[in-house]
Amino acid sequence: xxxxxxxxxxxxxxxxxxxxxxxxxxxxxxxxxxxxxxxxxxxxxxxxxxxxxxxxxxxxxxxxxxxxxxxxxxxxxxxxxxxxxxxxxxxxxxxxxxxxxxxxxxxxxxxxxxxxxxxxxxxxxxxxxxxxxxxxxxxxxxxxxxxxxxxxxxxxxxxxxxxxxxxxxxxxxxxxxxxxxxxxxxxxxxxxxxxxxxxxxxxxxxxxxxxxxxxxxxxxxxxxxxxxxxxxxxxxxxxxxxxxxxxxxxxxxxxxxxxxxxxxxxxxxxxxxxxxxxxxxxxxxxxxxxxxxxxxxxxxxxxxxxxxxxxxxxxxxxxxxxxxxxxxxxxxxxxxxxxxxxxxxxxxxxxxxxxxxxxxxxxxxxxxxxxxxxxxxxxxxxxxxxxxxxxxxxxxxxxxxxxxxxxxxxxxxxxxxxxxxxxxxxxxxxxxxxxxxxxxxxxxxxxx
Length: 448
Description:
Layout (H helix, E strand, L loop, with lengths): L1 E3 L7 E5 L15 E4 L4 E5 L7 H15 L4 E4 H7 L5 H16 L14 E4 L5 H22 L7 H12 L6 E5 L1 H6 L3 H7 L7 E8 L7 E11 L8 H4 L7 H15 L5 E11 L10 E4 L5 E4 L6 H14 L5 E6 L4 H6 L4 E5 L2 H14 L3 E3 L4 H9 L7 E2 L8 H10 L7 E5 L5 E2 L2 E2 L4 H8 L1
Parallel strand pairs: 1-6, 2-4, 2-5, 5-6, 9-10, 9-13, 12-16, 13-17, 14-15
Antiparallel strand pairs: 3-4, 7-8, 8-10, 11-12, 14-17, 18-19
Helix pairs in contact: 1-3, 2-3, 3-4, 4-9, 7-10, 9-15, 10-14, 12-15, 13-14
């Protein structure tokens, strides 16, 4: 548990520049040393190629891993070392790292003794702490959604859970749409992905509109609860981790809940498109042509390119039904973004310089990395060319490379010329088979 400026306990953690005052301290960046006689854990922080914030983050992780007792964290000691680093950023790093690393999540293991981390520092940071508490709560909430086993985490399960957990938050309107509503809206792409499933499709809609002076933002999240690839079946080694294919929906809905709980001034409609992608007697076949909610006909070249299909109808929904002014989607969409960026950054695609600018500002505050990738005219031409003459667009091109950009070009066609930002989190949503709750900090900063 994280406490703030409470009565100090026996063991404290402080940051030091080096071991000049005590040679027993390990003079290595990010390595903690407990000197029992001092009742102090020393953490060396240096002006190193690894920045101060990263050193603090890694050092706090190491402390949590190695010491299982209550600790007072002297934030001011780190501030005195980390020149040109805002105290606010140091507090955020320490708080977020403790919250993330101590979260037990979904586990059958018995709970161990709760350890308290008491952050003490000078100055008034009450508003910051209030925000941090809420944002970290929903990062961990999203992580638990992501980690849910796929036999439990079905579309019906997520819809019911999110509805029940969100309905008590003041100012947040929550609605769940099912097959009947999706059929009435002509969501052929969404229903086409669901056609092979034993579970009913669900669309979770959260509306938090408290500031009409801001542009209304539509958030659309990919909620594929498990992705087998459909008739374009994935090989077994690519089937691992496909429960995380609903991460986009988890993070955009969690971020919306966080904004509402924080009473932020915002204007948002968030939509989670939940289904799975399986093989069944009614499952969509490759080479099928399906009409989308927008009226565009789509050639299904690859049933394993299903995420862009559910997102397309989700984008049309927020544009046509909710009259949004701009759109952001989040999705574990393509393997090719991993080839470009690995696990180090989220891929960002947009024709809107303003949205990229706002994303970069939010990223500076959140500490989450993004890298802009292109949507060239050639990408859209290929998406149209490979669909002709049977359809307007294809969901997957017949070329080997650049699929992340083809996917972005495909999605952009459903935004109706409104500012659109596509965030591909295939490389950042999960790590070591654990959900990361990525984007929530950035979306919070972007939209608040």
